[in-house]
């Protein structure tokens, strides 16, 4: 290349920057000066502008910055550049020093490796996992090869009818009434035929069983009128035919029974407590953070109705494969998740949305799981909320589940409740029901490793004011995080590795890389 290449950010924003090729030793100073650009336009990779988009997610901005860094690395490698900080001025003298260039090149290589590792773990975590319980509470389970299945379902016919879908229930409702009308119309037609009501020549002073029934259509209309006690007055039975009187009594009783069954079926389907679960909400994601110095797993539940759910309580179950000592594979082993049963925290006063807490202790299945392990784990956390409906007194149950990809490490839930001074009410903003915010510099190691390190090695991350750190006002700058955290942390790590052991132990609490007091253990910190 004989000239400089000007490149603009992939997103279209930011200022242009230039890439200057290295002048060979045999090139005259004038040529090198002509090929160079102004010092203001020459910016090495660590000082590139922030290519972020306000309102975009952190992952999008970070991927945008990664793509831009890799693009610049490939372009500079094609031009024969050895590092990011060797632009030549007009006199052919390096503007930077070799140490800075080597550090930038090392950080770039580490960034490329971490990008590849992050993508591999992300692809592994997003692979399809067969969910057992859907978000709406339905179970993804089918039963087959059951002997005498139909007979068993018919033995409990009412529960079977209540559980079937509405379209089949309405079809059964319609077919049941039409079949009863046709069935009794045939009996009425048979009675009239046997009595001679359908004969063309009738004796004098002949009294029919049913007046004005001369065919099947008339018999069908009379059957409908009898069963539903309509009584138009044109067709009616006479007292000269005792079989007709008996048939009126039978059809009237049968009509009352079938109408009561169909009405009860429809009412039972409408008043099922399962429908009450439609107004109970679970957060789309669960989060892992710290509360009072202890790692916890949190998810949010809420009730949209003003009528309370009495005796509400919640419980959690972890479904995961387990292999016994004898080699037996248990594909769907259930592990109980303690949601505060001993302290009574599992019993909820569900008037406003509540964040349910699971303390990650030694007895917790999440004790040895870190943020990296969470991307490769395969399990399903099922949460169940039960309570008594205040208006009907029936017990209802709402279910939901969380996969490992739906658990956000180092996040907190947004605040929902605000006090309105004008009317003196507490207002709940359900727009932020599923919203979470990332905790800056949150440790990514497991709760076990964090306990082994000690609390003094990780400063307490206090609550951040919602007005200062809300999703609406926060702008994610991943490039700034990369420049201000990755490079200083790597330089600090190298300084500590070169220092004596007693100095590393004394500086463990202030280490930004999370090395801590143990020289052979490192707990990484979230970049956000």
UniProtKB/TrEMBL annotation:
Q: Which GO terms describe its cellular component?
A: monoatomic ion channel complex; plasma membrane
Give the record's membrane topology.
Multi-pass membrane protein
Which domain of life does this protein belong to? Eukaryota
- A single Pfam family it belongs to is IRK
Compositionally biased region (Polar residues): 1-10, 482-491
Ordered alphabetically, the record's keywords are:
Ion channel, Ion transport, Membrane, Potassium, Potassium transport, Transmembrane, Transmembrane helix, Transport, Voltage-gated channel
Q: Annotated region Disordered: where?
A: 1-46, 482-528
Say yes or no: keyword Ligase present.
no
Q: What parts of the sequence cross the membrane?
A: 168-191, 244-268
- What are the protein's GO molecular function terms? inward rectifier potassium channel activity
Domain Inward rectifier potassium channel C-terminal per the UniProt entry, residue ranges: 280-451
Principal cellular location given in the protein's record: membrane
Cellular location of this protein?
Answer: Membrane
Give the reaction(s) catalysed.
K(+)(in) = K(+)(out)
Q: Where is the Potassium channel inwardly rectifying transmembrane domain?
A: 133-273
Q: Which GO terms describe its biological process?
A: potassium ion import across plasma membrane; regulation of monoatomic ion transmembrane transport
- Locations of Low complexity compositional bias? 23-36, 506-519
Question: Which family is this protein grouped under?
Answer: Belongs to the inward rectifier-type potassium channel (TC 1.A.2.1) family. KCNJ9 subfamily.
Q: How does it assemble?
A: Associates with KCNJ3/GIRK1 to form a G-protein-activated heteromultimer pore-forming unit. Interacts (via PDZ-binding motif) with SNX27 (via PDZ domain); the interaction is required when endocytosed to prevent degradation in lysosomes and promote recycling to the plasma membrane.
Q: What protein is this chain from?
A: G protein-activated inward rectifier potassium channel 3
The species this protein was found in: Macrostomum lignano
